[in-house]
Amino acid sequence: MESIDECFNSYLFPTLGGTRVGNKVKAWFLAYMVKCLLEAHTSRWKCDSKDDFKNKDLDRAGVLIERELRLQFSVFGGK
Question: Does residue 9 contact residue 23 with C-beta atoms inside 8 Å?
């Protein structure tokens, strides 16, 4: 049977580490998530739709092609 500390370290945000400092960060992050959830539930915080176009980072086709070409040239012997 696992102890509470082992469960906390292994299953609750495992990427934040299992140290005392990591556990403190986990607790603060969990408290922040609960705060945001309660604010959204009481309508003090408006939920955003991730799929709405106004929340998307849209670039022009030229910018996207330039970024892709720079990446390809750097991989295949460019600068």
Answer: yes
Token digits of residue 17: 């580490």
pLDDT tens-digit readout, 11-62: 877 777 667 777 788 888 889 989 988 988 888 877 677 777 666 767 778 8
User: Which residue, chain included where needed, has tokens 């390809």?
Assistant: 72
pTM: 0.47
Q: What is the DSSP string of the chain?
A: ---HHHHHHHHSSGGG-SSHHHHHHHHHHHHHHHHHHHHHHTTSSPPPPTTSGGGS----HHHHHHHHHHHHHHHTT--
The C-alpha atoms of residue 33 and residue 36 are separated, in whole angstroms, by 5
59-74 pLDDT, tens digit per residue, is: 778 888 888 888 888 8
Rounded Cα gap, residues 79 and 75, in angstroms: 9
